[in-house]
Fold this protein.
Amino acid sequence: MNLFPGLLENMVLAAIPAVGFGLVFNVPRHALIYCALGGAIGRGGRFLLMGTLDMPLAWATLLAAAAVSLLGVYVAQRMRAHPKVFTVAAMIPMIPGVPIFKALIAVAQMQEKGTTDELLATALQSGLTAGFVVAALAIGLAVPGLLFYRRRPVV
Amino acid sequence: MIPVSSHGKPSPGGLSEPEQRTATRLCVETGILLLQHGAESALVETVTRRLGLALGVERMEIAILANAIVVTSLSERHCITTVRRNVDRGVNMHMVTEVQRAMLDVEAGRLDVTGYEARLAAIRPLRYPRWLVSLMIGLSCACFARLAKADLPGCGLAFVAATAAMYIRLFIAQLHFNPLVNFFVSAFVATSISGQGVLHKIGAKPEIAMATCVLLFVPGFPLINSVSDMVKGYMNTGLSRGMGALLLSAATCAGILLAMSVWHLWGWL
């Protein structure tokens, strides 16, 4: 029960960046609401999976992205537009931005000040997290195509 | 190929040569529009092929390269091949939606060749106003800071830094600078602004604002497109998109590092 405030906070705080980046990607106005919903469901789903089942970050991300993508197919068929039009913006709150920059900065510092165990560990750990989560997001979004729409287009 | 059938006359069941030429040109224009505005390769290929078939071509072959698209149409034993170079116009999902809807209308028989051509020429890509995008991105980065457990002053700092950086990024993009230069400069500005919070001790953990105010530079769309291209078998576009995203991140990183050494900030690593 004490997961609920955290869940609500995660969902609200994810919906806003999803719309924000939807504007950067010039998502049509009527689809922005689906960016917000997708962002909230994705981030909230991942929060629940990690909080209740102790699922690792990458697997939880994969399942959350797949759930958003499946719901996206339903919306897309009614909207007559490809689901990626709004599902990618919905994935933005789950993109591992801080790990990407952490890894790159650690690499730059290794070049400048010499390699230490801490820098190497930061670079590897953050870089791997970033790579695995991005792969999980993309594969999760591809799930409807991989499982159900194998030889036919979604829209 | 040697012209076997007569020029200009519609051959039974197939397209005449001028008709096939028009259809091929429309297909390649469609493909390049999608590619320019950030559609993934699988979508570019299916939409282009379906359009060609709907316009009466027997078979369509599409090859998507890192920065070009090749379309070949086959009709009545005639091949017409054409290439278009791709210049990145920035992600625009409105454009992708409109082009795909026009294709769907051709497929459903609601549009003919001339109608489709007019429809394609009439699409004006949607651009949200710069101030609105900047404010929303500032708000988004404030949300990211809150998700990373920043306090209210920290979120405010992330909001100010990200709003200013996004405005500068859109302004520089309008001047047609290389995106790498753009990201480098804007990331320097973002870190410089949020770094003031660390120097003047604003809030409990201003380092969080420093880390989250640069999240607007994460090339999320190219990263996701890169992996989905590779998963769906488009290795070359996937690799080039991934490399492009990595380069943009590296340029951002260089901007952050420059700001860190100018202001002597070694906080958030």
Notes: Confidence is low (pLDDT under 50) at residues 1-12 of chain B. DSSP finds ten helices and three strands in chain B.
